[in-house]
Amino acid sequence: MPLTELLQNVMMASPNGALVLQAIRGADGRLIDLYMTKINSVAEKELDCPAVEALGQSFAQAFPHLAEKHLLETYRQVLNTGKSAQFKVHYVRPGQSVPTGLDVSVVRREKSLLITYTQVADTKIEGPEEPLLDTLQTAFDESVNGISVFKALRDEHGQVNDFRMTMINKAGLQMTGLRYDDLVGKTIWEVYPATSINGLYKQYVRAFETGQIITVEHYYPEYDIWRAGKIVPTAEGIIVTYNDTTPTKKAQEKVVQQAQLLDVVLEQIPTAIAVLEPLWADKGEVGRIVDFRVLNANLALERITGQPKSHLIGQSITQIFPYANAAMLMLHCTEGIEEGSTSDFPMSVNQQPYQISVTAKIDQLVLAFSVVS
After folding, report:
1. Can you give the pTM of this predicted structure?
2. How far is CA 262 from each of CA 212, 303, 369, rounded to the nearest angstrom?
3. How far is CA 84 from the centre of its chain?
4. CA triplet 209, 211, 215: central angle to 5 degrees?
5. How many whole angstroms separate alpha carbon 36 and alpha carbon 53?
6. pLDDT, tens digit, for every residue of 217-257?
7. Counting beta carbons within 10 angstroms of the beta carbon of residue 181, is it exposed (0 to 12), middle (13 to 18) or buried (19 or more)?
């Protein structure tokens, strides 16, 4: 069996987490990060995305507890010397207050690193636990995101039938608008009976029973607010983290409303209108303008071009107009963008004379066709 295939099979069958990494080096040749080229199912569970999406991602971003600066030095030595390394790390998993311990092994395979790790039962770390717990409590209380911790409750058949809130942080209280005593110790059905109607309760149960993190975004019509967050399963229940996305959603709605209003106004104008953006020779750089693309248009422009509005949007003026018309439009439109000016000139389209107005608006143009009587 080829070595690469053998390695893949061993990784997939391993009960331990396993990753194959390639080095990312700076201009001076120094190791600055690693990227993932292979990952097994155990390691996949550590990530909030499928393994196929993890390949090529930064190791430091995906597994920060395994990519601290002093560990990168260990990985550099293994790559340079070929001598394997073993060590232990401790970190706090999302939604847990007790550190998790890992036994880690690193070996070089050709120009790659094979990292395997397994969870160890002894998760004690050096130093007293109280400072760590105080730090975690402070992080919980001062988080800018709302955090609510729930314990799952079961009926006589062992089925989850409710969740009782056991903790909530300051941000969470501010977002709910309720007092601490009105929430902690109460169940979802007591405090948020609408959760069953809006579908979030089913998401809570699904996250707890499947052990999968679920990302949600929900609109509460009774309060006219938006919340976005994650439902993170724990051994006894769930942790719900959330933030207020209402300002962002309102801004998006305003943009949509303004675009809809613009469409209505454009259709009421008898003059043919097109909104254009320049196309540059070098994408992303200020260079030579080679064409202009139609961003918006009204129905009056259909009569001039003989093409439906749906076809015009997204097309360039050299695709829409005959060569002579396109050349003249290119000249005046380019001047408008480069000089930020407004110009008027006569032009005939399909033997119909028009007075053309070109108005520059920052990095866009408004093109108006007025019929000459």
Report:
1. 0.41
2. 44, 20, 18
3. 37
4. 105
5. 10
6. 888 777 788 888 899 998 889 998 888 888 887 777 777 77
7. exposed
- Provide the residue type at 163 as one letter: F
Q: Which range has the worst mean pLDDT, 7-16, 85-94, 155-164, 235-244? A: 7-16
Give the separation between CA 176 and CA 238, rounded to whole angstroms: 18
Q: Are 190 and 279 contained in the same domain?
A: no
Whether 183 and 72 map to the same domain: the answer is no
Pair (214, 304) in one structural domain: no
CA–CA separation, 109 and 84 (whole Å): 10
Asked if the structure places residue 125 within a domain, the reply is no
Q: How far, in Å, CA of 282 to CA of 287, rounded?
A: 6
CB atoms within 10 A of CB 340: 11
Query: 263 with 352, same domain?
Result: yes
Cα 101 to Cα 106, 123, 361, distances in angstroms: 16, 5, 59
With contact defined as beta carbons under 8 Å apart, do 20 and 3 qualify? Answer: no
- Looking from the CA of 254 toward its CB, the CA atoms found within 13 Å total 6
| 86, 120, 154 - which closes a domain | 120
Give the range of the structural domain holding residue 108, as residue numbers without chain letter.
Answer: 3-120
Element (DSSP H or E) covering residue 20: strand 17-25
Residue 228: in which H helix or E strand, if any? strand 225-233
Give the total residue count for the chain: 373
Q: How far apart are CA 96 and CA 186, in angstroms?
A: 22
